[in-house]
Write a structure and sequence with these properties.
Oligomer: single chain
Number of domains: 1
Order of helices and strands: HHHHH
Radius of gyration: 15 Å
Distance between the termini: 23 Å
Number of helices: 5
Shape: elongated
């Protein structure tokens, strides 16, 4: 079970990298007002959602403790990010504040995952 959990953790990190990497590559365009949500950002957010749910299930199945409040907060943040990226995915330009909010929420989700003990 440990190997399977570690595989899903790795896939979860790949999703985070896709979402945050897509944001970081668009920062210069954000300054110019031409930033847009890339397909990698949408796929990264979806990967995070699927692997996160799988990780909770695998950990509970293995009788490991799961902090349900932390998971609920992370899920709520991710659903907001996923909703914003999904709704605005076809637009040529996304408002700077909206684009910055996705980056800030993604970064907040990373800090919640690592610092909340």
């Amino acid at each position: 079970m440990d190997v399977l959990i570690n595989v899903f953790v790795a896939l979860h990190v790949i999703g985070i990298a896709a979402l945050l990497g897509g944001f970081l590559t668009q920062m210069k365009a954000m300054g110019a007002g031409t930033a847009r949500f890339t397909p990698a950002m949408l796929h990264g957010a979806l990967t995070m959602l699927v692997t996160g749910v799988a990780l909770v299930g695998l950990n509970q199945a293995d009788d490991r403790p799961v902090d349900n409040v932390k998971i609920a907060v992370k899920l709520a943040v991710l659903v907001v990010v996923l909703g914003l990226v999904y709704v605005k995915r076809d637009e040529e330009r996304v408002d700077k504040a909206l684009f910055g909010a996705v980056g800030a929420l993604t970064t907040a989700n990373i800090f919640i995952a690592t610092l909340w003990t």
